[in-house]
């Protein structure tokens, strides 16, 4: 058994939490019944790893088998890396969405033409999405299985989600995807986050949609115990108003989980108390990043508690509306415009 | 969260309220906190500076590399220090450092034998060295800075293997308030600012040795909102002499779940904004009772600068940063966090930063 194969298996087992190991191995189905029974999952991780390395030798598993196991684990636990969303644009005139077999064949063929050593593995997920695992090499080195790129694509929708892709690999992937899907270009969707489902829901509009004009107003009183003093009534009115406006911007259901939003501001500095800066021609350059475990939830709370003044500015409400979390703001366009994402630290 | 309740729904033009509140925070542990909250013209006892100075000298580039041993300077810089304040040390002698080194080594060894957990993997013996950082003073009243290093040798080290530095600490006083220092009794040495870097276990051992030996007391030194804002302004003011690369400020807002806002400003633009604030302030004061010295930075300028930054932010996001707390500021000159962690990256402006921190530490002194 080669050293690299051993390393690959060791690393993979290290990533899989012990309590999930049994289920993942069962799904994989490469262990014989006897081997399965010989594994005691209450033992420490290193003992299990040693045992699996032994079985690996017995069964003569190859890289192909191990990457298969990796794919099963990653597909069940997608929220571990940073996912970037891309959009396929300009379909060809006689465009029809390709069917799976054809896409597989085409994608492998085209990527193989572009990169000499590359290892591609594809699997169809239950939700109609194709998962692609790419291990990259170049003309001199063999594919590196320790740092694979994962690509998720739903054949019916023009979106692609990618994790661990370097700048050098990006044009290659983009080219192969375009050729295999018969679109003409792949564009950065300016949306990224750790939760794949959230990103997909935002782009596919699969969460509760907000229709500002049709929002029931005023909200039905949720709490009827308000006493009758004028002040309390007035406060409650303001609070209800803020709550309504925050729901108008973000909806009142569960929100997709995004971890951050970045705005690159290049706008004029306007402040009536500071003449020098207001008269300055050049824009004031700054970058603002909002971060939270669930950014949309936090912003909605800010709006309903009054930290963010209502009505909510379009800059914030366009996160769910446009399905983006990277914006470049200039004075030229009234709305948020965007350009290519800069590599973020 | 009473703080955020008062400033919600308002535009950010209420800096005064916020500013006063955040200031009072830094006095909370001083015995005279009640006095600190009175007006600036109020009664000021001679013994201690009651509040942070409302104006201070703009940082001049001090070339302390000529005065201070570069090796020491390297140790002081690029380390993130966890700050504490220390009450004056009784019978501390700068001439006894060799003996202190021995005593502290023995103290650590003894504590370890008693089973005190010192979590440095595999190390078996510790060697302590005290040294004076010559030249790190600004006035005659300041006691010389002390640097403490703890080295350890691994359990099975070879003879020629160099010892590993596992812990570092420093005690300093830069531009300490002379009134306070002179008011101390004869045998007390004032080195109010203590920074440590290394395993927690060693830090507490060093602290308890100091407490036993010099009858002093250590307490945590947070960097208050006002001090962080001072650093923002003082560092930005250096931009023409030494590029600050970026001006980064991080706020935490009391949303559910908590929201963190990182605001990074282009260095040129930050400097232009700062100089416009300075210019406006100086014009205002012209013809007034005193012509302003250019080297003096006033708290009003600092607050005005922060206000401008916040209102630019508000104009875009309709979010008032005053509702949250400023947690961290950083530029290429250094970084500071509200939990009392500081890192200095440029020796030229080290003195200014340490002066501010010495002042914060002195504010904590009980009288």
Automatic annotation (TrEMBL), chain A:
Q: Which Pfam families match?
A: CENP-N
Listed GO cellular component terms? chromosome, centromeric region; nucleoplasm
Q: Would you identify the family this protein belongs to, as annotated?
A: Belongs to the CENP-N/CHL4 family.
Q: Give the species.
A: Scomber scombrus
**One example of a Gene Ontology biological process annotation:** chromosome segregation
| Record's protein name | Centromere protein N
Q: Does the keyword Nucleus apply?
A: yes
The record's subcellular locations are: Chromosome, Centromere; Nucleus
Instruction: Give TM segment ranges.
Output: none
TrEMBL record, chain B:
Print the keywords alphabetically. Centromere, Chromosome, Nucleus
Supply the InterPro entries for this chain.
CENP-L (IPR025204)
Q: Which domain of life is it from?
A: Eukaryota
Extract the Pfam families matched here.
CENP-L (PF13092)
A cellular-component GO term for this protein: chromosome, centromeric region
Compartments in which it is found: Chromosome, Centromere; Nucleus
Q: Which family does it belong to?
A: Belongs to the CENP-L/IML3 family.
Protein's UniProt name:
Centromere protein L
What species is given as this protein's source? Scomber scombrus (Atlantic mackerel)
| Lineage of origin | Eukaryota, Metazoa, Chordata, Craniata, Vertebrata
């Amino acid at each position: 058994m080669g050293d690299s194969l051993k390393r690959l298996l060791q690393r993979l087992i290290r990533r899989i939490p012990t309590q999930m190991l049994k289920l993942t191995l069962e799904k994989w189905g490469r262990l014989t019944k006897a081997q399965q029974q010989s594994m005691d999952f209450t033992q420490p991780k290193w003992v299990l790893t040693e045992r699996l390395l032994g079985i690996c030798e017995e069964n003569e598993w190859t890289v192909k088998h191990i990457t298969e196991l990796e794919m099963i684990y990653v597909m069940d636990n997608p929220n571990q890396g940073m996912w970037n969303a891309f959009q396929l644009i300009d379909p060809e005139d006689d465009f029809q969405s390709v069917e799976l077999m054809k896409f597989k064949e085409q994608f492998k063929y085209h990527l193989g033409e572009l990169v000499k050593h590359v290892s591609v593995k594809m699997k169809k997920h239950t939700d109609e999405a194709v998962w692609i695992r790419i291990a990259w090499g170049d003309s001199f080195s063999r594919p590196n299985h320790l740092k694979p790129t994962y690509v998720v694509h739903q054949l019916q929708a023009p979106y692609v989600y990618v994790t661990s892709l370097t700048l050098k690999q990006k044009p290659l992937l983009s080219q192969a995807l375009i050729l295999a899907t018969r679109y003409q270009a792949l564009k950065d969707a300016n949306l990224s986050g750790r939760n794949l489902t959230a990103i997909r829901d935002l782009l596919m509009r699969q969460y509760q949609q907000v229709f500002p004009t049709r929002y029931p107003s005023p909200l039905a009183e949720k709490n009827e115990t308000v006493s009758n003093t004028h002040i309390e009534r007035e406060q409650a009115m303001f609070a209800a108003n803020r709550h309504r406006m925050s729901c108008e911007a973000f909806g009142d259901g569960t929100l997709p989980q995004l971890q951050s939003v970045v705005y690159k501001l290049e706008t004029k500095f306007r402040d009536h108390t500071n003449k020098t800066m207001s008269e300055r021609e050049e824009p004031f350059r700054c970058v603002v990043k909002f971060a939270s475990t669930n950014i949309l939830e936090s912003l909605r709370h800010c709006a309903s508690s009054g930290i963010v003044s209502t009505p909510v500015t379009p800059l914030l409400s366009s996160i769910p509306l446009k399905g983006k979390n990277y914006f470049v703001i200039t004075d030229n366009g009234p709305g948020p415009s965007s350009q290519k994402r800069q590599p973020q630290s | 969260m009473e703080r955020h309740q008062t400033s919600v729904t308002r535009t950010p033009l209420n800096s005064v309220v916020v500013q006063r509140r955040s200031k009072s925070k830094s006095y909370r542990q001083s015995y005279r906190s009640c006095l600190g909250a009175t007006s600036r013209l109020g009664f000021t006892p001679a013994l201690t500076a009651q509040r942070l100075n409302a104006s201070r000298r703009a940082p001049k580039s001090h070339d302390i590399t000529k005065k201070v041993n570069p090796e020491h300077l390297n140790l002081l810089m690029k380390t993130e220090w966890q700050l504490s304040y220390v009450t004056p040390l009784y019978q501390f002698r700068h001439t006894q450092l060799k003996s202190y080194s021995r005593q502290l080594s023995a103290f650590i060894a003894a504590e370890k034998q008693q089973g005190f957990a010192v979590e440095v993997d595999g190390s078996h013996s510790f060697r302590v060295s005290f040294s004076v950082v010559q030249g790190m003073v600004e006035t005659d009243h300041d006691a010389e800075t002390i640097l403490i290093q703890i080295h350890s040798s691994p359990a099975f080290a070879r003879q020629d293997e160099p010892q590993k530095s596992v812990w570092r600490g420093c005690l300093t006083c830069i531009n300490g308030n002379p009134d306070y220092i002179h008011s101390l009794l004869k045998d007390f040495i004032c080195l109010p600012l203590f920074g440590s870097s290394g395993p927690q276990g060693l830090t507490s051992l060093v602290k308890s040795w100091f407490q036993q030996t010099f009858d002093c007391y250590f307490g945590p030194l947070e960097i208050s909102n006002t001090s962080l804002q001072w650093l923002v302004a003082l560092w930005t003011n250096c931009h023409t002499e030494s590029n600050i690369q970026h001006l980064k400020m991080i706020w935490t807002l009391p949303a559910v779940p908590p929201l963190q806002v990182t605001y990074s400003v282009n260095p040129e633009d930050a400097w232009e904004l700062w100089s416009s604030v300075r210019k406006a302030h100086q014009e205002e004061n012209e013809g007034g009772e005193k012509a302003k010295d250019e080297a003096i930075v006033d708290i009003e300028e600092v607050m005005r600068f922060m206000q401008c930054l916040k209102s630019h932010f508000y104009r875009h996001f309709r979010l008032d940063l005053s509702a949250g707390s400023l947690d961290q500021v950083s530029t290429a000159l250094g970084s500071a966090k509200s939990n009392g962690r500081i890192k200095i990256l440029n020796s030229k402006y080290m003195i200014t930063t340490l002066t501010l921190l010495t002042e914060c530490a002195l504010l904590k002194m009980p009288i």
